[in-house]
Task: inverse folding
């Protein structure tokens, strides 16, 4: 391993380390003045995602500015539906919107899948290569994808939703078609992650952002089998699964091929360990709103979290950092973690 | 007890009953054609809430149309902030909006509280009286209020939000002021529920709709003490606490003075029982989206739920019924439950 800082990789391998690695979901984004400046010059988020040199630049910004122990490629989970042939837009302050949503067997039949879909995303692989070059082996680079259910939810619902009741309705009314669509998404995600790994990412993370809308039964039927396929078929780098709010499924994650399990701020390490067993590395889970508190309180919470989780832990928030979080507070958090020691 | 159908009350008393009672959160609403017709003639939701005879009419509609075992007074949790002096509006298809939000100690100081606030809500008590008259003792009438944290969240945030990050920020940045505001809300809720009981409601339910946004620590500090006060000080009728998504706090509910604990669809009766112990009655917890499925599947799910919960159970959904749920499906659900028998 030629990385100067391989703390994240050693932690994911289960090796003894001197302190937990720290990075933040959404660390490349609006919390950084460098990001806001660059973003202000562009027509939109999608332009940034699709321009490899710019994506690489914002991916590296938090490594320079915050000193985090990993970079995560600046991209979007919805590039997969786009590559499968379902176009989406990002509307400022509203979120993603699919002008056409999936309603019929015919539409599912016509979706591009697997390597054919993944081959449309060369701008992502180019961004990975450019980032690797820019990082110059300082820290590992994380690649990511949306989990099949979360991508399915957007493709049926057409945009963000409090309940995703249309997507869930589809699961209840069309279980067979749902499995067909989930399977095509899964194949595409697998090929996409393989190409990202080829391009140089050192770790992959799967985001199941809407896990917490499902019942335990729906999660077992429509999510676990696809998460298992991805875990089994994507090999060569360590993998992290972050299924937000899916506390009820933690016991099932035990048998999946992911070294790391992301936790939201509602799941204590004790509860998570009881469900998942001893073999997984946890990632998380500070409440992002804690970073609105004063420095003393942030320091206390950071130290407390490290003590509570013990070793085999990657420090992160329980969700993406909120865009209005003061930069100084993020630095206080990161620096506090970096001053900790297990010994 | 002179009620013709006192199944809900007997269940909440822990008595042996022939089958579980059934009602649905949001049963008085858009799923009913009678409601949509009446609503179409009015200027808005708030007009309906504030006109006792109309509120009574829509409260009784589901008893007539669905044959549910309880009515729940048609109202809104945000009448309490309104009565405390914080005006709100309901914007069609968007949700509630407070033109002014709470930011300062001075504003909290000036809020009306307790009996003074509760006295502004005579239209609610009049609606309860009118409903009792219209129901003519057929089924019990449930009164409700928002839990202190949920009302606090709206008063700070100013409207709906995916994260309520401004409200949570206030908890982290201003813990003392937060306690002051929560205490004033609590006192108002208590006096409000007392007056509702005086007016004739047979059961009260507390909705902590945004419970699932907090950490276990925040919930212990900013919610449990106020839920406890309400449980201890509101007496005379059975009480149900529904803290959506607060699986992590279930063990703490064991010691609170509520006979019933509402569950969302992610919490299985087995898990809930392990946390809460034997002394509480559970209410819930079908996924509202299950009511989009076909009749055979709904029947199966309804029977399955009754079998899984066993006795000491009030049948309901795990959240309010969604407005586009087909009426026939709701009837299939209610009728299936009513055909069950514990013996």
Result:
């Amino acid at each position: 391993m030629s990385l100067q800082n391989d703390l994240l990789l050693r932690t994911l391998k289960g090796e003894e380390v001197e302190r937990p690695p720290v990075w933040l979901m959404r660390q490349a984004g609006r919390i950084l003045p460098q990001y806001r400046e660059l973003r202000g010059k562009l027509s939109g988020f999608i332009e940034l995602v699709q321009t490899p040199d710019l994506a690489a630049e914002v991916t590296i910004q938090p490594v320079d500015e915050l000193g985090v122990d990993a970079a995560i490629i600046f991209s979007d989970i919805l590039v997969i539906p786009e590559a499968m042939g379902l176009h989406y837009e990002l509307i400022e302050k509203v979120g993603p919107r699919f002008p056409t949503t999936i309603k019929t067997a015919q539409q599912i039949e016509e979706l591009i899948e697997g390597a054919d879909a993944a081959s449309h995303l060369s701008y992502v692989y180019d961004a990975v290569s450019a980032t690797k070059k820019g990082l110059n082996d300082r820290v590992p680079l994380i690649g990511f994808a949306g989990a099949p259910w979360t991508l399915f939810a957007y493709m049926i619902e057409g945009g963000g939703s409090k309940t995703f009741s249309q997507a869930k309705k589809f699961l209840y009314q069309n279980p067979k078609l749902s499995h067909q669509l989930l399977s095509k998404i899964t194949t595409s995600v697998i090929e996409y992650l393989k190409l990202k790994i080829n391009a140089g990412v050192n770790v992959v993370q799967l985001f199941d952002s809407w896990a917490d809308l499902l019942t335990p039964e729906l999660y077992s039927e429509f999510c676990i089998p696809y998460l298992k396929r991805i875990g089994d078929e994507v090999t060569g780098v360590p993998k992290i699964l972050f299924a937000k709010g899916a506390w009820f499924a933690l016991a099932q994650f035990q048998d999946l091929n992911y070294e790391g399990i992301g936790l939201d701020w509602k799941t204590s390490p004790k509860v998570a360990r009881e469900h998942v067993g001893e073999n997984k590395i946890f990632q998380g889970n500070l409440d992002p709103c804690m970073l609105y508190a004063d420095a003393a309180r942030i320091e206390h919470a950071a130290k407390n979290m490290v003590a509570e989780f013990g070793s085999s832990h990657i420090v992160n928030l329980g969700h993406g950092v909120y865009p209005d979080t003061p930069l100084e507070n993020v630095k206080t958090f990161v620096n506090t973690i970096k001053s900790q020691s297990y010994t």
